[in-house]
Design goal:
With 662 residues, the chain is α+β, with helices and mostly antiparallel strands. Helices cover 17% and strands 34% of the residues. The radius of gyration is 25 Å and the shape is globular.
């Protein structure tokens, strides 16, 4: 027998092909259609590959119940191209590997959940091209997602070049999408800081001044929410994005733009075998809650490399640059921000670019002063070298391995706690490896890292937990842009279902004031405070000035002193991107609720408290006040059956802190 069981059979166990049967299979003529499937334990999601006419494709079905299956991803192409080999046509099926179950539990220092239980079904399928070279497709299916990756087994004697990829994601033609354009090469880009497109039609062409669509991408079609991204990046491949066009809803993988790194690095990936690509990941669920709560990106990433993580401390930080651009070069103007962190119990203060030219004191003296206040300093660096053209700041310390290690050893000696590395600006393999090299070298000196001008997360926070955050978002420092300021409330509700889903996001939230000139927020102060909970980041940089925070009501200051950045659990409560985001996060036995209104109309929001469990709780809501810049406060005694209704202003929001009554 030489044909795999048809993918149309629905009542089968998690694999449509048993291991013993697979071992007996012989390659079939490429004219004979073949297929094989992998489903999760629940049988609710099924990935099916099909080989027809020598070309490989796949689809994904939400089985739901016999006779009620929904095709979420329609027939989509698979395949890679190497400089020496083509794996997009002329393929033959060789064999199926042993199906197996994955059942692991791991912990995270950052993210939506501290303890994560990862269960999945996985199976590998081997194909060969006309030249007899092998390609392995490994399929991994979880309760809320499917993933696949390509593998080249060992055997090649020389480095190989991965030059192209045929992978596509065929969405149903009728539906909506929330997507961020991928920038063309320029002085400040690509940096994943374009404005997200809100509820556009599936298949919409990317703007003409952009180079495609970035990961992650969110879709709603056939009553399903679908997030497409990638995970498990290990530095041996490029990070991908999507082509600008998607005819009939078919989004295809696009390699990094050739002009990225200004000729320093190749567009193709240079590999040696055995080799595995990053995972192509599709999260699927009936509500936006599946997307918001998923841990699939870290599930698919390599385990932590460090035996000891006790030195890694997520935390909150003050930041002087936004409200006083030249302050990092003046000791006396940074000191008040160190004092703010000390007074509010925040763990860190960020000293941005310019500290290398500090006057009226040295950075070493500032570190000592901060240490005396129990505050750690974070210092900014340009990623530097010839791969970017931003001339600002220290740009000769991070790209050369020995110089970088010497610099990090010096940082450790003076007592700095972390670094912010900026202007990465490429998704080529060269830059993926530089990210990892920086993380490894920083860990050797017990330094944490925050990347800016950076790609979106690909799961490194599990492998390198000293990565506390990444930018990869148009953040609060962009309020100078009138269009961004006018629509930030909408973008914020998109972020919680897209960018922040895949990893920590250094948005630099919570602006109460209107300085400096032109950087004016149009959201309410209640909305801004809620960002401290709605946006997850292992280091949360509070963006505003010392006076802006010290002038708030005592209960707001108390909230900012108490709000954590590490979470044991995250729950979706209500909402949809562009409209509303209502979520709850737990730290220990305390719950925090955040509501963001994505629309310019006032609303009454009912807050379901079923997540609380048994008992009685004291809840303090900080709400919108009489004006944009005022707050309201409401204290309630609640239990899990209650659903308090909170008034929310246009572009408004609220927070709640809920603790058990002893």
């Amino acid at each position: 027998m030489n044909t795999l069981v048809s993918s149309s059979l629905q009542g089968l166990p998690r694999w449509t092909l048993s291991a013993c049967f697979a071992c007996l299979l012989l390659p079939a003529p490429i004219s004979a259609a073949q297929s094989g499937s992998v489903a999760n334990d629940l049988g609710s999601l099924r990935f099916t590959w099909t080989l027809d006419g020598g070309r490989l494709s796949y689809n994904v079905v939400d089985v739901k119940a016999v006779g009620n299956a929904v095709e979420v991803i329609e027939a989509s192409p698979l395949g890679l191209t190497r400089a020496d080999a083509d794996f997009t046509s002329g393929l033959e099926f060789v064999t199926a590997g042993e199906p197996h179950q994955i059942d692991e539990t791991y912990t995270m220092l950052t993210g939506k959940r501290r303890v994560i239980h990862h269960q999945a079904s996985e199976q590998a399928f081997t194909f060969r091209n006309a030249a007899g070279q092998h390609l392995v497709l490994t399929v991994h299916v979880m309760a809320d997602s499917v993933a696949f990756r390509y593998e080249f087994p060992s055997g090649a004697n020389a480095p190989l070049l991965v030059t192209g990829e045929s992978t596509g994601f065929k969405l149903p033609a009728l539906g909506q999408a929330w997507m961020m354009p991928y920038d063309k090469v320029a002085e400040w880009s690509p940096s994943y800081e374009a404005e997200w497109q809100n509820k556009i039609a599936i298949g919409t062409l990317a703007p003409p001044d952009k180079a495609g669509w970035a990961f992650p991408a969110l879709f709603h079609a056939r009553d399903h929410w679908i997030l497409v991204t990638e995970a498990g990046m290990d530095g041996t491949c490029y990070a991908a994005h999507l082509q600008p066009d998607a005819p009939s809803g078919l989004y295809r993988i696009r390699l990094p733009e050739d002009g990225e790194t200004y000729g320093v690095a190749a567009q193709a990936a240079t590999i040696t075998t055995p080799w595995q690509s990053p995972w192509r990941l599709i999260v699927i669920g009936p509500t936006p809650g599946t997307i918001m709560e998923t841990t699939a990106v870290t599930n698919l990433s390599a385990p932590c490399e460090f035996a000891d993580t006790s030195w890694i401390k997520p935390g909150r930080a003050s930041w002087s640059w936004w409200s006083d651009k030249s302050s990092p070069s003046d000791y006396n103007r940074v000191v008040p921000f160190v004092d703010l962190s000390a007074d509010f119990g925040w763990e860190y203060a960020l000293v941005d670019g310019g500290w290398e030219n500090m006057t009226r004191g040295s950075v070493g003296a500032l570190v000592d002063y901060a240490k005396s206040k129990n505050v750690g300093l974070i210092l900014w660096y340009n990623s530097g070298g010839k791969h970017n053209r931003v001339i600002f700041g220290l740009r000769d310390r991070m790209d050369d391995p020995q110089v970088r290690r010497n610099e990090m050893a010096w940082l450790a000696r003076i007592g700095a706690k972390g670094i912010k590395v900026d202007f990465m600006q490429s998704d080529k393999q060269f830059m993926m490896q530089l990210y990892i090299d920086i993380l490894r070298d920083a860990a050797a000196q017990h330094l944490f890292v925050d990347f800016h001008g950076a790609t979106t997360p690909r799961g490194w926070a599990r492998t390198f937990p000293n990565l506390l955050s990444q930018e990869g978002i148009r953040g609060a420092e962009q309020y100078w842009d009138p269009n961004f300021a006018a629509n930030a409330h909408t973008f914020h509700t998109i972020y919680t279902f897209t960018r922040n889903v895949v990893g920590s996001m250094d948005y630099t939230p919570v602006i109460f004031g209107d300085a400096p000139e032109l950087e004016r927020h149009q959201t309410t102060n209640g909305h801004e405070l809620a960002l401290s909970v709605a946006f997850e980041s292992g280091v949360q940089h509070f963006v505003d000035s010392v006076s802006a925070y010290r002038s708030q009501p005592d209960y707001v200051q108390d909230f900012l002193r108490a709000v954590p950045v590490s979470w044991d659990e995250t729950r979706y409560l209500a909402g949809a991107p562009g409209e509303l985001s209502l979520l709850a996060r737990r730290h220990g036995d305390t719950w925090y609720v955040a509501c963001l209104n994505g629309e310019a109309v006032a609303k009454k929001i009912s807050v379901p408290l079923g997540f609380l469990g048994a008992g009685t709780f004291a809840a303090e809501f900080i709400t919108d006040g009489e004006t944009q810049h005022k707050f309201g406060e409401k204290k309630l005694t609640v239990n899990s059956t209650d659903q308090p209704v909170i008034d929310v202003a246009a572009k408004g929001g609220f927070t709640a802190r809920i603790v058990p009554v002893r």
